[in-house]
Amino acid sequence: MTTEDYKLLQPQLPKQPGVYQFISEEDVILYVGKAKNLKNRIASYFGSKKHQMAKTRTMVKHAARLIYTIVDTEADALLLENTLIKKYQPRYNVMLKDDKSYSYICIKNERFPRVFITRRIQRDGSTYFGPYTSRTRLKIILDLVKNLFPLRNCTFNLSEENIRAGRFKVCLEYHIKNCLGPCEGLEAEAPYNDKIEQIKNILRGNFGPVKRHFQDQMQELSSNLEFEKAQQLKDKLMAFEDYQGKSTVVSTTIRDVDVFSIATEEKLAFVNYMKVVNGAIINTYTQEMVKNLDTEEADLLSFVIPDLRERFNSISPEIVVPFEVELAETDLIQTVPQRGDKRKLLELSEKNVRYFLLQRQKEAISHVRKQTPAERILRTLQEDLQMDVVPLHIECFDNSNIQGSFPVSSCVVFKNAKPSKKDYRHFNIKTVEGPNDFASMEEVVARRYKRLVAENQPLPQLVIIDGGKGQLSSAAKILRELGILDQITLIGIAKRLEEIFFPDDPIPLYINKKSESLKLIQQARNEAHRFAITFHRDQRSRNFTSTELTSIPGIGEKTATTLLQHFGSVKKTRQALLTEIAEVVGQSAAKKIKAYFEGKGDEEE
What we know:
By secondary structure, the chain is α+β, with helices and mostly antiparallel strands.
């Protein structure tokens, strides 16, 4: 990104916490960063270069664009940044390690489940709580859980068969009262699973029963005058209450949901998607769409929600949306929140999609300013003709004849709004007799595009026919028969009023006479006409030359060509001496030629 790119983006940057991403032209994420204030942090990349590392300057230089996601707090930015770095592993990021890599509490999906800290989430049916920003507090919580509910920490396969066979013996953890010995069958599965459910309640924030349990224990210890142990238990309880095992990104009331919001403008629509798993935002994405006329926002959401859920492998049973939409999944719960945590999530999504829309609008303005004249003209032409693609490759056809004699056609090619003369083609009409422009156009268009299709060459995006509805219909008929009419925009231009016609549409299009796009169409039409006229004159001249010499009895085309190559013209051949002509074509032919011209001279006198 250049400093000019940043200046165009800078007014739209929010002064809020968030995560930003530098992205290359190949759509590869180069760097993910976090910020307490996005506007100030991003500005630091485009200020003084003196104190920047060489890698930072290189990264900014290679970046083509920048996107960002707004969050509520700096802690949220930390969590989201870490998730994105782990997922995409950007080239210019330093991978976080150990205590800087956010952790989860895992309750393993196994018989007599273990509870432990992990940084890896595996799709094996285990239950995960987190991520947690403070590993120190996380250890306090886990120690508290284990003190309250003694659990095993070994990795043995405690199946019924293994336990009955006596394959395991209790270890030191049993003797120091950290485990109740399920490996030898000293603890049954049902009470162990009851403890696991209580631990899940704690991690979800259901503290009422746990607090009462603590208070009863502290009361008992106080009654027994064990004040030191009571104080230790109180300290752990206070630390537990203070942290509560969550950050603002992780919600204890929300499980797995997908959040969608939408923002639209005249031609484009943007849908923001936030994937929430176990109360944490693990992915955000904004889908850009081209709007059709009169497309409602509800219809756009109905179209894009199934696509995004499939793309991100979401199985969430609930979606949060700004309004109800029609979906094929009838059992999917739709929530339009008015308050609470889900409303905050929806507002966060809406904030992101609005900023994304503003950023795109700013980029569009920047792109227009950067466009070359050719790009500007072609995009204007695309809009005027309502084309799906920019007409980088244009071809224009014109016929030329005089009362049906020497009928020819021309095809001129424009690439990037400029004539590509090496691609020009001219055609002698072979199958049409007399002045029939419609049939001539059919023949030429068929010959041109049958060859392109057969040779698998690229087709033009726009084909212009110099003529009115009749010639346009002839061209459309051929393109339809070839099965390529839907791949090409075909128009005809009538000379008198510069009307633009489309196949099967009786109402012409009038483009502003001062428009650059109309001038480009006129330039292509005029160039096709010039090229056709030039070729037609050459054909007439060549025909006259061959008639003058080959009309001499006993002189064929080969002899006539030899004479023209030697003398340069019919006039110089006529003025040459008999001996000079004889040296070129022989004595016999020379006598016939001189006799012809001498006789013609007598007639002219």
